[in-house]
Amino acid sequence: MPYGIIVTMPTIIAVDIGGTHMRAAAYAQNKQSPVKYKKIATLASKPGGFERLLSVIEDVWPKTDSVTAIGLGSPGPLDPHSGYLLAPPNNPEWHNFPLTPKVEEHFGVKAFLDNDANLAGLGEYRYGAGKGHHHVLYITVSTGIGGGVITDDRLLQGYHGLAAELGHSIVDPDGPPCSCGFNGHLEAFASGPAIAKYVLGELEKGTKSVLKRDANMTARDVAEAAHQGDELAIQAYQRAGTYLGIGVASFLHVFDPSIVIFGGGVSQVGQLLFDPFNISLRQRVFHPRYLEELVITQAQLGDDAGLLGARALAEMKSGL
Amino acid sequence: MPYGIIVTMPTIIAVDIGGTHMRAAAYAQNKQSPVKYKKIATLASKPGGFERLLSVIEDVWPKTDSVTAIGLGSPGPLDPHSGYLLAPPNNPEWHNFPLTPKVEEHFGVKAFLDNDANLAGLGEYRYGAGKGHHHVLYITVSTGIGGGVITDDRLLQGYHGLAAELGHSIVDPDGPPCSCGFNGHLEAFASGPAIAKYVLGELEKGTKSVLKRDANMTARDVAEAAHQGDELAIQAYQRAGTYLGIGVASFLHVFDPSIVIFGGGVSQVGQLLFDPFNISLRQRVFHPRYLEELVITQAQLGDDAGLLGARALAEMKSGL
């Protein structure tokens, strides 16, 4: 390399605006680890959120290298096409907020936005468990159930940018109410709160269990009871796994992916959920060909999924 | 144009292998009507099907113009990636049959294959009701329920080529058996045979109706009775429309299209099906944004959908 010439590397900046933390990273091409990384508190309900976002981006901005694009991830609902946040949870300041246009204006660089579940799916597809696959179904099972779908190497976004809301698929029209207020969604059967709610309902009916009626009960409490052999707790996970299998069977018929990746806290519980899931899925898939070479696996990126997804979005939209 | 020079136009050949007829057409670029068209009997159960296919293609082959590609449509299951027919109905000769490779070998031209519902959706997207839309959900409601999905201007095919089997989405795990043998699919509630079967079941229970117990009853018979004011018949369509609304609500949450196009004989019944469908859909869509600017409409291409879809497939795969 000729002496005296500064070689600049094209850099992508990724930001993951989470409920608790806002994290930013600068990535050089072809390296999975960031060149710079910074994490600050989101403080969603406190004013000055946009200024905090600008400062965390500035903190990771490279001194010499040029920034190609900025990728931004946030909880939805949001519009990835216009870059507007619509109504992020607990943050009145950011209702109908033109996030991408304002970031572009400030930094003079193209910016791209999508929701956390879509980006976690995109991150796993490009940098995690889904590497090498072209048709990826990512499902996060946590407080809610979210999805990220890649078909033919492209992120499914939809006309309004509201596609892949897998948790709001109707799996039983007469089922219990979902967090969104509508009945019978997959999320109303298999999310963490749905598992706890089912146990509370059964306790109210007088079903015996080591678990006590406690409005703060979590899916983790239920899992611990199940590991002690508590029948109600085991049954709660069986029910969740069974409905998860029903939902994923429909998703296979509709998307026909080569890999299903599970993320989110509830999905880390293991066999308790995935034994009944696997039985249910195999009972419900209507043609054996969907299961040929199908990989069902856990997410690999953990807390980095959203950040690497925001990076992947910025890369792919910039043609990298 | 200089005198004495023959100008050749790139031509696409499309073939629609239906249950009753095999139809072929040659299309010049930018013209919706075919330059040549031929229809022959499929005679699926009689030997010589491949020879009949070759002859119908030869009949529309242009004398001077060059053929860019051949698009082929057939009932599934089939593999659009390898071009193999897997198990077309009533045709033992074509089980595991390498249709596309054999057509390519014979004519020395690239050929592309997909199933009839996917191609009807693609045809409507490119030449029919979906023109100008980038996110299209096509649903055919007929003897079965099939789907064709275009997301971001690309046909959803999936890893095994088995995506968009919308009729086999599970809308109620405890629902009646589907034609495929599995329970609670959309097709088991809202296809023509499902409507007739529901009426027959109710008649068996003693429900009063102008309809008589007749194993050959069709959805058309039920529609006629409904138009005469028969309550059971009306209820049968209400049930079908309600479940169709539940299914489409989930499809909106998952695909977020800008247009939903209905094809197939049962969908031509009008308000009888679509009044309850619309009520059900609006009751079930969990965020009003999905319905903003959403067009819900009938297919425009009729019998030509498959042919124009096969044409569109060949054009798009050739980069036209």
Brief digest:
Two copies of one chain form a homodimer. Chain A is of the alpha/beta class and about 325 residues long.
| Widest beta sheet: strand line-up of chain A | 3-2-1-4-8
Oligomer: homodimer
Q: Tell me the distance between the termini of chain A.
A: 24 Å
Fraction of residues in helix of chain A: 25-40%
The secondary structure category of chain A is: alpha/beta
Inertia-based shape of chain A: globular
CATH architecture group name of the largest domain in chain A: 2-Layer Sandwich
CATH topology of the largest domain in chain A: Nucleotidyltransferase, domain 5
Count the helices of chain A. How many? Answer: 9
What is the CATH top level name of the largest domain in chain A?
Alpha Beta
What do the pLDDT scores of chain A average to? 95
How would you portray this structure in words?
The structure is a homodimer of 320-residue chains. Chain A is α/β, with parallel strands linked by helices and 320 residues long. The first copy, chain A, folds into 2 domains: 11-121 and 304-317, Nucleotidyltransferase, domain 5; 131-299, Nucleotidyltransferase, domain 5, CATH 3.30.420.40. In chain A, 35% of the residues lie in helices and 20% in strands. Chain A is built from 9 helices and 13 strands. Chain A has helices at 49-60, 99-107, 116-127, 187-190, 192-204, 219-227, 231-255, 271-284, 305-317; strands at residues 11-17, 21-28, 36-41, 67-74, 78-79, 84-85, 97-98, 111-115, 136-141, 145-151, 154-155, 259-263, 295-298. In chain A, strands 3-2-1-4-8 form a 5-stranded mixed sheet, sandwiched between helices. In chain A, strands 11-10-9-12-13 form a 5-stranded mixed sheet, with helices on one face. A 3-stranded antiparallel sheet of chain A has the order 5-6-7. In chain A, helix 3 (116-127) packs across helix 9 (305-317) and helix 5 (192-204) packs across helix 7 (231-255). Chain A is globular and about 75 Å long. At the A-B interface, strand 10 and helix 7 of A face strand 10 and helix 7 of B.
